[in-house]
Amino acid sequence: MAEQISAISTSTSVTGLASLNAAQQAAVAHGDGPLLIIAGAGTGKTTVIAHRIAHLINSRRARPEQVLALTFTEKAAAEMERRVDLLVPYGFTDTWISTFHAFGDRVLREHALVLGLSPDFRLLTVPEQVIFFQEHLFELPLDYFRPLGSPLRPDTA
């Protein structure tokens, strides 16, 4: 498999691949199936993922609309999108790069009617979430997470 990865990485048309180290190049050119990348902060994970997305698109192994990349923060999603835009040909920017929350929101809105929701639902704000759980915690079937007592409810102390 190492020979195959080496051959792929030297023939790829992805811009800037030479700036990656050997392990990063192997990750970018990885064949089919999942790949786990374990690395610390500032080690180039975002760079590798952006190059991997570009490699999949440029080598025609995936169309841009078939790519989904999820991050935890808006800042990381914007940076990933910016990097991919620089690496793929103009007009190939239909990738789906977002946060996990934005992804969930989009999927729920697209399938809201099937799920019995209104497509224009709104999410609760943090204060609304706190109030909701204070009012409904004991109605939820959460035996494992249910507090043994509550200073707010004298019948549970």
UniProtKB/TrEMBL annotation:
<dbReference type="GO" id="GO:0033202">
    <property type="term" value="C:DNA helicase complex"/>
</dbReference>
<dbReference type="InterPro" id="IPR027417">
    <property type="entry name" value="P-loop_NTPase"/>
</dbReference>
<feature type="binding site">
    <location>
        <begin position="39"/>
        <end position="46"/>
    </location>
    <ligand>
        <name>ATP</name>
    </ligand>
</feature>
<keyword id="KW-0347">Helicase</keyword>
<dbReference type="GO" id="GO:0016787">
    <property type="term" value="F:hydrolase activity"/>
</dbReference>
<dbReference type="GO" id="GO:0005829">
    <property type="term" value="C:cytosol"/>
</dbReference>
<protein>
    <submittedName>
        <fullName>UvrD-helicase domain-containing protein</fullName>
    </submittedName>
</protein>
<keyword id="KW-0378">Hydrolase</keyword>
<dbReference type="InterPro" id="IPR014016">
    <property type="entry name" value="UvrD-like_ATP-bd"/>
</dbReference>
<dbReference type="GO" id="GO:0005524">
    <property type="term" value="F:ATP binding"/>
</dbReference>
<dbReference type="InterPro" id="IPR000212">
    <property type="entry name" value="DNA_helicase_UvrD/REP"/>
</dbReference>
<feature type="domain" description="UvrD-like helicase ATP-binding">
    <location>
        <begin position="18"/>
        <end position="157"/>
    </location>
</feature>
<keyword id="KW-0067">ATP-binding</keyword>
<keyword id="KW-0547">Nucleotide-binding</keyword>
<dbReference type="Pfam" id="PF00580">
    <property type="entry name" value="UvrD-helicase"/>
</dbReference>
<dbReference type="InterPro" id="IPR013986">
    <property type="entry name" value="DExx_box_DNA_helicase_dom_sf"/>
</dbReference>
<dbReference type="GO" id="GO:0000725">
    <property type="term" value="P:recombinational repair"/>
</dbReference>
<dbReference type="GO" id="GO:0003677">
    <property type="term" value="F:DNA binding"/>
</dbReference>
<dbReference type="GO" id="GO:0043138">
    <property type="term" value="F:3'-5' DNA helicase activity"/>
</dbReference>
